[in-house]
Amino acid sequence: MTQIQERTGIATVGGNPVTLLGPEIKVGDQAPDFKVNKDLLTEVSLSDYAGKVKLISVVPSVDTGTCDAQTRRFNVEADKLGDDVVILTISVDLPFAQSRFCGAAGIDKVITLSDYKNRAFGQAYGVLIKEIQLDQRAIFILDANNTVRYVEYLTEMKEHPNYDAALQALKELV
């Protein structure tokens, strides 16, 4: 049985320290594969987006203000990036909740994926919060060969990512 790495003292939720499960992903790493759900029955993995530059926007739940704003911002930006880029928003929300949110918010460029079933993405990318089983907010940018080119782990769940830095790193790859 494989021991899951625990990282403490690097993230907080409402100012309270939490434990992140999984490794810290760094620029230059080969991105770990993962399986998440597109809907209740359909699983997808990193290979489903082969050949594309990927911005992976990790949010704890689309039903919170910061996550809503983050997803909306990347949806607006996605329209400007072309067909060689895909933006994936991953949370542990059920696919039903993600679909409802996207419909109500007019999200039609970002692909929402659910880590609800096994928390496999959260553990592979070091964002699963042990205490509450949500994924901590983060941004990962992968080139077309799945090499990690940009990483931002947010230290507080309620903080916004550095949108400008992430978008600049993304644009340098297309």
Automatic annotation (TrEMBL):
Gene3D superfamilies: Glutaredoxin (3.40.30.10)
Classification via HAMAP family: Tpx (MF_00269)
Catalytic site positions: C67 (cysteine sulfenic acid (-soh) intermediate)
Documented EC number(s): 1.11.1.24
Protein name in UniProt: Thiol peroxidase
Family according to the record: Belongs to the peroxiredoxin family. Tpx subfamily.
InterPro entries: Redoxin, Thioredoxin-like_sf, Thioredoxin_domain, TPX, Tpx_CS, Tpx_Peroxidase_subfamily
Role played: Thiol-specific peroxidase that catalyzes the reduction of hydrogen peroxide and organic hydroperoxides to water and alcohols, respectively. Plays a role in cell protection against oxidative stress by detoxifying peroxides.
Organism expressing this protein natively: Paenibacillus planticolens
